[in-house]
């Protein structure tokens, strides 16, 4: 009998669920198991995976919930008949920025797990604090102001750590925690990120941070590859930076590093092989760029409730409006990220207004409830310009307060004439809500083009800088009208593609990271190994043309008007 081929697990510990994806060495998905926090957990007063303290703008998750979920998701794989003994390696993705506070007995409890009893029962007492602050938390304005100020400016903080201070970033969160709960902080032996917490459970000891996810803390000096002393000092307050550094632990540089073998608990309880290796888990956004062999000039746009734009790039050009992280696998590369609060929800408002006016499309219409929105978008010329001499229609549509740029909820409509460089705030000439279908898609894409333009390169002489390919993932990637406009606005010399992995991109990226960590030849990059095994025809689909010179140039003029419009609106709010 031939030896069974190896399998790899990628976990995704996100806000609302824990998912496990099992792949083989050819990158094919064999099993998927999901533990949905609201639907499948018992004993936690959660809503969409989290709890709230609205008075203080706190959002947090009970850590014991995740213990219950890990056994639950493994039980799910067991009931599907997974032969755990074939699993050679595991990695994971965790919601970024969240922190877990371990008590003094944690290591002992992790090392003494009994396979006859569940993780929740045995580890609920391992934490000095039972909750993990969540990335949706916004309780840290005071701490953010201090972080932004301590090195002289937000620009300088962004230059050092890759981002200006953000409410959700772990440094400001830890700082507030140590102020609010000094006794608990004092009794905290170690602090994990959600990603390293997951790896710790699997290893049976506290795992180090991942080289990419550590950049979501506002504490890591990216260029120097070490914690920034002054930021540690600020964060730790009277407890001092040395104690905090010890609580945070070391950070191995290699994203494919073997942390060690899976804990005995999983061998005895589920039948894992004692030789199954644990590879560092990373953040969910860094894991997303590992769902395909993304090349440095490719862009990924994740069109979910919010919009994220991800690029892998050799250029480090930090700015307070954007994020830079170390690349999760490839030294010398960085992950560039834009993170918007308004994405799918904002488009849905316009879609509903259009359906109200035009009548709901039949449920069998291609595009479903989006049929009218799509038709209207495609029937409207770029920027609503019927004639070249017409002014461009540009707008901002934020049903929720936005981070990029930092503006309260609101809607603003303008016209812009590039020939005279005239920008006017007006609703004259706007046909509501018809003109808004194309305008909202353009508005979201123009913002991406504006903020990524310093990172793209010219593909060949005479062709303007742009991404090579644009990959769309997430719910909105099904929408062909958005794909078409994405190609027109962003370009993409090789076209616009859909990565057909549904909501699985981060778990898949984590599983691929495990494959790479275990099967790489010495010196072989992630992109090299995954690129060799990647079956393009099966995994992606070209859904729209990319670069079209005339319209790309026209949107180039629109970007200038768009930038002016943002500045005008920001000016009104000051
Ligand atoms: C990124 C961020 C979110 C979470 C979602 O900075 O806060 O995308 O990672 O889990």
UniProtKB/TrEMBL annotation:
Polar residues bias locations: 356-365
Family: Belongs to the FGGY kinase family.
PANTHER family according to UniProt: SUGAR KINASE, XYLULOSE KINASE
Residues covered by the Carbohydrate kinase FGGY N-terminal domain: 135-289
Pfam families linked: FGGY_C, FGGY_N
Database matches in InterPro entries: ATPase_NBD, D-XK_euk, FGGY_C, FGGY_N
Coiled coil: none
Function: Highly specific D-xylulose kinase which participates in the catabolism of xylose. Xylose is a major component of hemicelluloses such as xylan. Most fungi utilize D-xylose via three enzymatic reactions, xylose reductase (XR), xylitol dehydrogenase (XDH), and xylulokinase, to form xylulose 5-phosphate, which enters pentose phosphate pathway.
Ranges where the record places region Disordered: 356-386
Keyword field: ATP-binding, Carbohydrate metabolism, Cytoplasm, Kinase, Nucleotide-binding, Transferase, Xylose metabolism
A GO CC term attached to the entry: cytosol
Name of the protein in question: Xylulose kinase
One record GO biological process: xylulose metabolic process
Gene source species: Aspergillus ruber (strain CBS 135680)
Catalytic activity: D-xylulose + ATP = D-xylulose 5-phosphate + ADP + H(+)
GO terms assigned for molecular function: ATP binding; D-xylulokinase activity
Location of the Carbohydrate kinase FGGY C-terminal domain: 299-517
Location (main, coarse): cytoplasm
TM stretches of this protein: none
Major enzyme class: transferase
